[in-house]
Amino acid sequence: MPPLAKKLKKCLQPLVPLPASKPMKAFTLFFLLTAIGAEVLGQTTPSLSTTFNCIRSGDNFATVARRGKRTTQPMILWETKLGLWDAWERCRVVSQRLSDAVAESGGSFSNLFLTYGSVNNQSVICYVNSLEGACNSKNLLFTLKPSDRGREQEVLAKLVNFGVKGSGSPIQQSASQSYAPIGEAIEAELSPMR
């Protein structure tokens, strides 16, 4: 038996009786103790990640957030086609973009905001990580319908008030731009204390 294994066995005999006929190798004992320590500290359960999915909602599709067994109320209801994109495709793509946005920020919602802007001369809603962020082709979530142009702040307000009425966070103003703290709204909906 290697010297380290003898020392470990001697130190641990009062805690873990080891049969003399089957000596444990040092590395096996190390992994056993590591697993026990992690279990005691509660580190074996991975944290649940939040994803966004497209689900059926009546005759339409809806984007929802999911964490474990918890699901938010529909955040965005997709009813119509816009350009070449039907409701299902818009829902699927935006849900994936939101999942990617959360993954890019390490799973954190604390700095996830929605805002509006223009990309390719079209009014869009996008996600940003600060109150100075602006829309571009890399953070675009979706293009607004022509009928929503000029109503961007109203659209943002609806996006953060998807849960229980009155539970949404207020739209934040930074200079002349508005930012909706979508991360706070999602976290409130998925919180186990709800």
Tell me about this structure:
The protein has 194 residues and is α+β, with helices and mostly antiparallel strands. The chain has two domains: 3-41, no CATH class; 50-190, no CATH class. It has five helices and nine strands, in the order H-H-E-E-E-E-H-E-E-E-H-E-E-H. The protein has helices at 3-12, 26-41, 87-104, 152-160, 182-190; strands at 50-57, 60-67, 70-71, 76-78, 113-119, 122-128, 140-143, 172-174, 177-179. Strands 1, 2, 3 and 4 form a four-stranded antiparallel β-sheet that branches. Strands 5-6-7 form a three-stranded antiparallel β-sheet. Strand 2 (60-67) and strand 3 (70-71) form a beta hairpin. The protein starts with a helix and ends with a helix.
